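Retro notes, item 3 of 5
We never archived the inputs for the zinc ion complex last cycle. Fixing that now. Sequence and ligand:
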Amino acid sequence: MVRIVSSTPTSGGEVPEQIDVPAGYGRAFRVRAGQQFEIIDVEGEQVADLCAVAAESHDEHIFLPVTRLALGRAEFRHGDVLLTDRRRGIVRLDDDPVGTHDTLFGICDRYRYEVDFALPPGHRNCRDNFVEALSAEGVSPAHADLAADNGVNIFINQRRDEQGEFHLEAPLTRPGDAARFTALIDAVVAVSACPESQSACNGGRPTPMRIRLL
Ligand SMILES: [Zn+2]
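Structure as it came back at the time:
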């Protein structure tokens, strides 16, 4: 994992740790209960997919059906909590500049590119990014795969109109925009800088993300 330590102290005087996520790749990191972290859209118009497992039991992961049931909707907003399959909060979204996130549409996988876009095998994708990144933090491929089934789309700009039709447009984020989260339990979190360039998902141009551990 590439870890870059910031030279900019926080207001509390501590130096936050930064993790650069290259365009099209994923990275995972550990957070403690109560710890905040930011997902920063370095260049703007980029979706970050996020999944997480409990640090103490990797078979416990964000589970979107129970999260949507608790929220009463598919959109994910300020103050909302992502729940695990054991129905306890694992991560809360505290603040972000655009307010467009989603728990419904899932993440891209190798078949998104091979089937939907008729591309040859080997295209990077969020599912494989999650498995690679979580494996680097000691999460088994089987547990990582379960977590990847429940990836949240941060900054995605896909909306439903009054007829229930979906419309995907470029994210509204500008360079440097950040979503801030709080971990509610000790967790291993994975973030993928979505590699999809074939739609408006990432403004047609996948770019890097940055994680800042506060
Ligand atoms: Zn993706």
